[in-house]
Design goal:
The structure holds 2 protein chains of 2 kinds. Chain A is of the alpha+beta class. Helices cover 25% and strands 31% of the residues of chain A. Chain A has 2 domains: 14-235, P-loop containing nucleotide triphosphate hydrolases (Rossmann fold), CATH 3.40.50; 240-362, OB fold (Dihydrolipoamide Acetyltransferase, E2P) (Beta Barrel). The two termini of chain B are 41 Å apart. Classes of the chains: A alpha+beta, B mainly alpha.
Chain lengths: 368, 339
């Protein structure tokens, strides 16, 4: 269906080496030393809340922000002192950044004209790019005559039409509604597969990150907390920050003695495999809500706690049940809707889980 | 609970009041309320609807009266002080000193008039171009400056506007004198001693300064609305700095240039005080020529006809500008409005 052969090219490798950023007039480092290697053709996502430095890092790769110290390499070549127009990277912006005074076709022609492509080549490449994003018949429209989703597809076409080896995407779906976001996620993934470019994708949406990426870099406070595949960061988060940022989690803090976590108000058994990579001492136990069950617990080694139900939210495929423990902590349980537990607000219930599903991570107490 | 309901009712009532006063009620929009009673129609309901209709009609009538009341003073002001004198002028141009088209025939045949018109148009064009060229980078700086600097830059442009035009013009007479500071500045750059008072360059300098706020402000408003990420986008797509300006920023800032330039052009065509004081009768502009007819020759009819001619010239120029910029304007304006 799509003849992407002409547009496709292999992606480039990007290496960030001890990159820091201090904004003028500020004494604090916005980016506190980032080392990251993005492989050829990889879909790398920078995930983090606002003000965590993910967009600043992207802007430094693009060249809109200068690097204070450190270097950025593109296929081994230092590009950190190059101007944006010399780097030859593609970029997609959150607000689309389409030129409002140009038609869709003129927008997509723009990068090719800067590269002095022949008129014939321009026409052919623009048509291919328009087909790639299924906007073949919209070439003569102005951006203001398109919907948000269509505008972002034009921006995508404009950013890939000149076969850059890296595509930078700065929260490209942030301004779109949920349904559109999902369909564009599929489209972006497809383009990544077909073109084989290196994608660097900035988002604060964990579902986007988990669903699309080859690897995720979780940003926090100008640093990367963890880099890994979606499975890695979800199933074995490096610390309780990553655990709570990606998906809902219940975090129990305490100190580890052998394979038992003592929280001061309860004792939980920790899987031997988990506890062995942790030294004894301050530790957080992370349990995902979908791994917890309500009802009579099976025999040991299961952990269990009791509390009162304070809310039950039906969410289609599952119910979100909040259970308040006697010490005031609220525990979140995600029950498949098929389970007819029939709990309602005010019920006293027992929540249980198998030690295997608990994730032990270094304690946050000291830093948090 | 009840408190909340009461409050929201009051708010709704207020909104309705506001809407009817502002003329947004359905009747004013040409929508006739249709009361359709269904077969199982509830009489009470229909009745209530009827009373609501009549009361809304009453409210509308009151709103209309209110609008007239608000409109009356400014309307009277304009009629008395602008429309009447303008009509009087037009009337006299056909009747004074004798009935007929005599005054207009005189304008068409007098070589002095055509010379003055051409000179005025050229002067206005030079002043417009000068102000635009000076104002463009200034407005751009204003649009990207921090709040504090923007305040300073705005004040620098606007404070002269709050000063009397006479005071400013006399200040320019001092500045433009032979051996004055402006002349000294020219000398500094190797242009030798220049005479500015009573010359076209002197008049242009003074007029451009007077016009500056009128061209800076529309440009600034327009530039402030330009999304600077577009410049980043074009750079990432491979555009060199000058291309970014020529292909992206300049077209997007064009509506500001057009409205600023139009304003200056219109004001310059009829400018009187500055050219009269800094220029000479030998290079007088249209405004001065009209003043001479009234002040020295007491030819009210002829002056009226000249004023009509000036308006005609202005309208013709505006029409020309509009046609020349129409396509570009509508393009960029729709884009700015679309955001």
């Amino acid at each position: 269906m799509h003849s992407g052969a002409r547009l496709s090219e292999t992606g480039a490798q990007i290496d960030l080496e001890s990159v820091t950023k201090v904004y003028r007039g500020s004494t604090e480092e916005t980016i506190k030393g980032i080392d990251l290697s993005i492989k050829e053709g990889e879909f790398m996502t920078f995930l983090g809340g606002s003000g965590t430095g993910k967009t600043t890092t992207l802007n430094m790769i693009a060249g809109f922000e200068t690097v204070t110290t450190g270097e950025i390499h593109l296929d081994g070549k230092d590009i950190s002192r190059q101007k944006p127009h010399e780097r030859g990277l593609g970029m997609v912006f959150q607000n689309y950044a389409l030129f409002p005074h140009m038609t869709v076709r003129e927008n997509i022609e723009f990068p090719l004209k800067q590269r002095k492509v022949s008129p014939k080549g321009i026409a052919q490449q623009v048509n291919e790019a328009l087909d790639m994003v299924d906007l073949g018949q919209f070439g003569e429209r102005l951006p203001s005559q398109l919907s948000g989703g269509q505008q972002q597809r034009v921006a995508l076409a404009r950013a890939i039409v000149y076969s850059p080896r890296v595509l930078l995407l700065d929260e490209p779906l942030g301004a779109l509604d949920r349904r559109l976001r999902e369909s564009l996620q599929v489209e972006i993934s497809r383009i990544h597969r077909e073109l084989g470019l290196t994608f660097v994708y900035v988002t604060h949406d964990q579902e986007e990150a988990l669903g699309m990426s080859d690897r995720i870099a979780v940003f926090r406070d100008g640093q990367i907390e963890q880099v890994g595949t979606p499975t890695e960061v979800y199933e074995s988060p490096a610390n309780s920050f990553v655990a709570t940022f990606l998906g809902d989690s219940n975090v129990f803090s305490g100190s580890l003695k052998g394979d038992v976590l003592d929280t001061g108000w309860a004792q939980f058994k920790v899987d031997a495999g988990m506890s062995s990579n942790q030294q004894s001492g301050a530790m957080d136990l992370v349990v995902r809500p979908e791994h917890m069950s309500i009802g009579d617990p099976p025999a040991a080694p299961h952990n269990s706690i009791t509390g009162g139900v304070i809310s039950v939210m039906f969410q289609g495929a599952y119910r979100r049940v909040s259970v308040e423990l006697s010490n005031g902590l609220v525990c979140l349980v995600r029950e498949p809707a098929s389970v007819r537990s029939g709990v309602s607000i005010g019920d006293r219930v027992t929540v249980w889980w198998h030690p295997v599903v608990g994730i032990a991570v270094a304690g946050e107490k000291a830093s948090a | 609970m009840f408190d909340h309901i009461l409050r929201s009712n009051a708010a709704r009532h207020f909104e309705i009041e506001l809407a009817s006063h502002c003329g947004f009620s359905s009747n004013n929009l040409g929508v006739t309320p249709v009361s359709t009673s269904t077969a199982t129609g509830d009489d009470k309901k229909a009745n209530r609807r009827a009373t609501e209709d009549s009361s809304s009609v009453k409210r509308d009538r009151r709103a209309r009266r209110m609008r007239l009341l608000i409109l009356a003073p400014p309307l009277a002001f304009v009629l008395l002080l602008f429309v009447y004198p303008a009509l009087e002028l037009l009337w006299r141009s056909f009747t004074d000193p004798e009935s007929g088209f005599g005054n207009y025939v005189r304008i068409a045949t007098d070589p002095v008039v055509s010379t003055v018109i051409v000179r005025t148009v050229i002067m206005a064009a030079i002043v417009t171009v000068t102000s635009v060229v000076i104002a463009y980078p200034y407005a751009h700086l204003m649009s990207i400056a921090t709040d504090r600097w923007r305040m300073v830059l705005t004040a620098v442009v606007l404070i002269p506007l709050w000063t009397s035009l006479m005071a400013r013009t006399f200040a320019w007479i001092v500045l433009l004198q032979n051996d004055g500071p402006v002349s000294g500045l020219f000398e500094l750059f190797g242009f030798g001693p220049v005479t500015l008072l009573g010359t076209t360059p002197g008049v242009v300098i003074a007029m451009a300064q007077v016009m500056l706020p009128f061209v800076v402000m529309p440009m600034y408003t327009n530039m402030k609305a330009i999304d600077l990420r577009l410049l980043d986008a074009s750079r990432s797509l491979g555009a060199k700095p000058f291309t970014v300006f020529r292909k992206i920023y300049l077209p997007l800032s064009f509506p500001g240039i057009a409205s600023g330039a139009t304003l200056v052009l219109v004001l310059s065509l009829g400018f009187y005080v500055t050219p009269a004081l800094i220029g000479t009768p030998q290079n007088s502009m249209f405004g001065q020529y009209i003043a001479v007819q009234i002040n020295e020759l007491v030819a009210f009819g002829y002056a009226g006809a000249l004023a009509v001619a000036l308006i005609a010239v202005t309208l013709i120029l505006l029409g020309g500008v509009r046609i020349a910029t129409k396509t570009k304007m509508s393009d960029s304006q729709s884009s700015i409005g679309g955001r």
